[in-house]
Design goal:
The complex is a heterotrimer of chains A (about 250), B (about 290) and C (about 375). With about 290 residues, chain B is mainly alpha-helical. Chain B contains 12 helices and 2 strands. Classes of the chains: A alpha/beta (about 250), B mainly alpha (about 290), C mainly alpha (about 375).
Amino acid sequence: MGVILEVNNITKKYSGLTAVNDMSFEIHRGEFVGLIGPNGAGKTTLFNLISGMVKPSSGTIRFDGRDITGMKMNKIVNLGIARTFQLVRSFKFMNLLDNVGVSCLSPRGKRLAKEYGIDEYASTILAATGLVDKARLPPIILPHGDLRKLQIAKALGTNPQMLLLDEPFSGLSHEEQKGITDLINKMHDDGVTVFMTGHVLRELMHLVPRVIAMVQGKYVIEGPPEEVANNKIILEAYLGRGATFA
Amino acid sequence: MSDALVSFIIYGFAQGSIYSLLAMGFSLVYGVGGILNQAHGAFYVIATYIFYTSYLYLAQFGLAIGIILALIITPLVGGLIYFALIKPLKESHVGIVIVTFAFAFFVEQFVKIAVDSIYHNMPLLIPGTFDFFGLSVDNHYLLIIGIAVLLVVLVTLFINKSKLGKSIRAVAQDSEAASLMGINVDRILAYTLVISAFLASVAAILYVPEDFVRPAVGWTVLLDSFAIVILGGLGSLPGSVLGAFLISYARSFTNYFIDPTFSALIPIVVIVVVLIVRPRGIFGKKEID
Amino acid sequence: MLDKFGEKFAGVPAYLRDWIKTFRGKITIICLILLSALPFANPGPYIMGIFYTFMIYTIFAASWDFLAGFVGQVSFGHAIFLGVSGYVVAYTLRYIAFIPIWWGWDNGILVPVIGIPINWVTALLLGAIIAVLFGMIVGVPALRLKGPYLALGTLAMSLILYQLFLMGQLGIWWEGTFGTELFGTDGLGQVPPISTNPLIQYFMIFLIMCVSILILTHLVKSNLGTVLKSIRDDETGATASGINTTKYKILAFMISGFFAGIAGGLYALRFSGVNPALFQPLYSFYAIIIAAVGGIASISGAALGAFIFVFLGEILRLLGDIPGLEGFGGFVEPIFIFSIFLILIIRFAEHGIMKPALERLQDMWDLVLGR
């Protein structure tokens, strides 16, 4: 299948700190790829760059054949990249239906949602993420696992071609993790390209067929999880010298 | 040298030094606590009226009693505002802006009711005049410039060298880290308000004899302070002093060489232009939200 | 096609029926009936005048609340719209007979051929449209400014206009260009009222108030409202959901400006003129306190707040005039009392000030009863 995301020599410098250093990689349409790296490796910054939240210092990003380097975040979303955030965010003073409804009201989301009716379409998404019985409630009462699901539901509202999931398992119980995993698998089966970061390595490694690894802003290696996990640089970054990944 | 030029130089400098005191206080409160204190002008008003009413009713003790009372009470009000109004609203920056704004209205009205709305004059602190390049200038202006400059230097030294100053700077950089190091962040924030109010009261006492006692002056003070600090960069003390002299000389220039009526527009235009073009000002470091 | 229209319309009565059943709906209907009945009770020009002012402030505060409570853009300079529209309405009604919209040739000279005649309705709309333009102008810098900076930036803008109109001229350099006269401290007077018949005048303003509130409420409950609220709740999140927040923020400023402009125009008509005082921060402050009392994030709350504000203000003013109360009389100065109110409301309101007044009253009642 074709290449959907092309990252070329992307660099992001903050005064004195290079958060992402000359990274290049490709992701193909329909793939399920993981992004790993120890804390502070620059994973979220990379996602911020791809989603348009932050402008790169140099390098280019191409999505679906178009150059999206430096494009505004909402424009990128409307081209088909949706993301979730590491720190859950929601529209606090609106109910879940409206939370998802906002995404459905984006130009891209509206094109699809209009056919069914915005509220109906949003309900369907909530149903798919298992949140429909809480549709009229505000996010403030949701447990953490449901908030993570809400994030994904909101992303789905924009009818994305590609999903960037930033630490979707963080802070979740085993049960909750399973719920999210099923959801993500379902989306992937539906044809959405999924690019996901994870800190809970074990979960991630069983989930994705390919992993890209970065350390201190730099690309290290990519490949099937077992290969990457046994790479010396990665092991040292995570566990210190002389360790092995069991 | 022409009279206009000489006036421009000396009066511009005097106003700049007063502005410096006001702007430093305002900038300090913002830099340390992230608070845009709308009641800053109210401090000036409070000090002015304490000074004035003491002069009216306690004249037998001289002006000194008014000065002392103003310098003590106003900073106390500053601290009070922190604990009563600002601290409880910590999470809502807009709430703080509204509540301090309302307090400023309150003070203006209170003073109108308790005293009156009429413009009054107060006697100069030192009589006599001196000759400045052919212009006869009140000696009082020497007092203004002297004390204001002295205070600017003292405050700068205090912030940079003293222990309390170090704590203040720590809170300004990172309040969470500072509190983890054992600094009582609340107390520090209250101190900055106290200092800010103190500086405003000194400015009031120095300037009022050459200006007027009037209730609406608080708004002008607030506006000018805001303009200076936005220009110089919020949170930057050197920026405040630079901004103070830039704006006071801009106003002075407009007064003597263009048209006095336009001078009131200058601070406002500065605010709008800076916020649109370069919101962090000349020396500002903090991101505007 | 009539079928479709009938369908849409059929939905409305159902929604309306449900609403009337609620407590809020019932109270609102009763108030509307009372308001309509008022002029027939022959209350006299003084009381009628107070009600006009109440209705004008309702629209003004609702426009501010739309922007602040639903889009999260807190402006301290809403008086800009009052003043701009007020001056446009005053000027148009006094000096312009009609607005030309099409020109033709007559004996070799270009003359206007079709024009819109100026009466209070067209003048009011013109004022509101110019206010919308100002909404755009104010909205653009607002994109860069958040929170307190937006508040103070808008305040500064209103002060610029205040100074300009106070000075009376747009500048010595522009002498000779048309329209530099800004009328100075006296402002523009002798503006004809809506009608010499107090009944007609009252009902026109009443109608305008109801329509404005209805439109704003509808906007807020519509899909547009949902998008605007998302900008208020989490602007970055809204952008991440694909929303062009820039476009919507400017739109919100324009809508808010329109209705604030209507209020300003009505003000000019009600008080037969305008002066620079209309640009003062005081008026912007009025919008804030009315909305705060009535409930931020509640369009109809603006009516409640305006009612309390205007009537309490009048009562306080009368109290202050009572002979023998001099000395103390000063302390019931309305602005003084209201500034205290505002401090207390903001200071003690839970959840910032998002809850409408009725709920807060309920909360306070519970607190008092120790529940």
